[in-house]
From TrEMBL:
GO terms for cellular component: membrane. It comes from Pseudohaliea rubra DSM 19751. The chain crosses the membrane at residues 20-41, 61-82, 89-109, 115-137, 149-171, 191-212, 244-265, 285-303, 315-336, 342-365, 377-400, 415-435. Residues 23-438 form the Major facilitator superfamily (MFS) profile domain. This is Permease of the major facilitator superfamily. It is found in: Membrane. Keywords: Membrane, Transmembrane, Transmembrane helix, Transport.
Length: 448
């Protein structure tokens, strides 16, 4: 099996901090807009249901399965390409494709058309995480990766916030205007026009990405040609450290399930339970997602360093354990919140906790995995977080609302039931990986 680093890399082997941070900021902006394109559907549930006559379960399939099916099927093959091909070009092609597919969502005339377009968004976005994580690992030395990963992982929260706030304002501004005529495509409802608006920045981002220089791959012998590890070698590595990778690939996605459940159903919860308008729900939840989510992901490295100073070498997974233990009580409080301000406080608490360990987990996966395996195993992480998180999160909440409670107004209780159950499962899986993770770190004297 290929070693994690054939030769030690010094900081001088890495691109300049100025260039590295410039690329980090561009990748973060791309990640932001990927989530704007992905999440705008959640704000438009009401008008889409009204125009296309869809049930909550059908909407959850658009939010989850329609996107995830292609996203997860392509993540590992694309991860394989990431290990050997130009990563900046892979991302640029992905941005162009998902932007076109987002615009296609705005032309849908029924469930099937919208489902196919959402699958197209999944195809494009499958390129981003494996390629971006691999790039960041080659732009920054191991001991300086946590902060850039944290900045990059602000993308989902900034994206959700922008999607909710801007989308809500656009929908409020277009309320009562009726269909809008667009060149070539004809008359579009306001919700359809919104999809076109959020797809437009993809043109500029694609052009900028083509200008990003590809860094040299670290952890290879001098002059070595990048060669992906064989699948038997990858399976042997994962098998030798199975508890660690079960925690990373199954336990951590339990947190992501809570995240996507919140993003999918909190706007609808605020409408149904607390009587907010579409614009109010979008701006209130969008502000929480943007502020609390961003603070959470930025706080992760500081919480990790604090635990590291206390002597916990496994601090990356330990922060995850602490978060899983706190999510359940926050969601339980949401289920019984009697007023909108109390509900928003619970949402803010959980929105802060959920992203807290994610940058640490990203660096743990990069640091624990040999360079020639990173694309594939990050692709595997993308698969499991999206199958467990995005495919199951919205749908489990919808199924609980439709069939367990049988009451549309019980969506808050559904969020609590699902969230508490998966938090307990994640707590068990990540908790049992602490000792093996420490042993793996001890065996990795040099990680690149």
């Amino acid at each position: 099996m290929m070693s994690s680093a054939a030769t030690a890399n010094t900081r001088a082997d890495y691109p300049s901090p100025r260039r590295a941070w410039g690329v980090t900021l561009l990748l973060t902006v791309v990640f932001v807009f990927s989530f704007v394109d992905r999440q705008i559907l959640n704000l438009l549930v009401g008008p889409i249901q009204q125009d296309l006559d869809l049930s909550d379960t059908q909407v959850s399939l658009l939010q989850g399965l329609g996107f995830v099916a292609t996203y997860v099927l392509l993540s590992i093959p694309i991860g394989r390409l990431v290990d050997t091909r130009r990563r900046t070009s892979i991302i640029a092609c992905g941005v162009a494709f998902w932007s076109f597919a987002t615009a296609a969502c705005g032309m849908a005339r029924g469930f099937t058309g919208l489902f196919v377009a959402r699958a197209g968004v999944g195809v494009g976005e499958a390129t981003l995480t494996p390629a971006a994580w691999s790039l960041l690992a080659d732009y920054f030395p191991p001991d300086r990766r946590s902060l850039p990963f944290s900045v990059f992982l602000m993308g989902p929260y900034l994206g959700v916030g922008i999607a909710m706030i801007a989308g809500g304002l656009v929908m409020d501004g277009l309320a009562g205007t009726g269909p809008i005529e667009f060149p070539i495509v004809g008359m579009l409802a306001p919700w359809q026009a919104t999809f076109f608006a959020v797809a437009a920045p993809g043109v500029i981002l694609t052009a900028l990405l083509m200008l990003v220089p590809e860094p040299s791959r670290k952890g290879l012998s001098a002059g070595a040609v990048p060669e992906a590890a064989s699948f038997p070698d990858i399976l042997a590595w994962v098998g030798a450290h199975h508890r660690v990778y079960v925690a990373l690939l199954v336990g951590v996605p339990c947190i992501v399930l809570v995240l996507y459940g919140l993003q999918a159903w909190v706007p609808t919860y605020l409408l149904r339970v607390h009587g907010m308008s579409l614009g109010e729900a979008g701006t209130q939840y969008g502000s929480i997602a943007l502020i609390a989510g961003s603070l959470g992901v930025l706080s992760g490295p500081f919480a990790g360093r604090y635990l590291e100073r206390l002597g916990y070498r496994d601090y990356q997974l330990r922060v995850c354990v602490l978060v899983l233990a706190l999510i359940g009580p926050g969601l339980a409080a949401l289920a019984v919140a009697p007023t909108a301000p109390m509900a928003l406080a619970c949402i803010a608490l959980v929105s802060y906790l959920v992203p807290l360990p994610l940058a640490l987990i990203a660096t743990a996966l990069q640091n624990a995995t040999p360079n020639q395996m990173r694309g594939v195993l990050v692709g595997a992480y993308v698969v499991t977080t999206n199958v467990i998180g995005l495919a199951l999160g919205p749908s489990l909440v919808a199924l609980a609302t439709d069939y367990l409670f049988g009451d549309p107004a019980a969506v808050g209780k559904s969020l609590a039931v699902v969230g508490v159950a998966v938090s307990v499962a994640g707590l068990f899986l990540v908790g049992r990986a602490l000792a093996p993770y420490r042993a793996l770190l001890d065996s990795q004297s040099t990680v690149s």
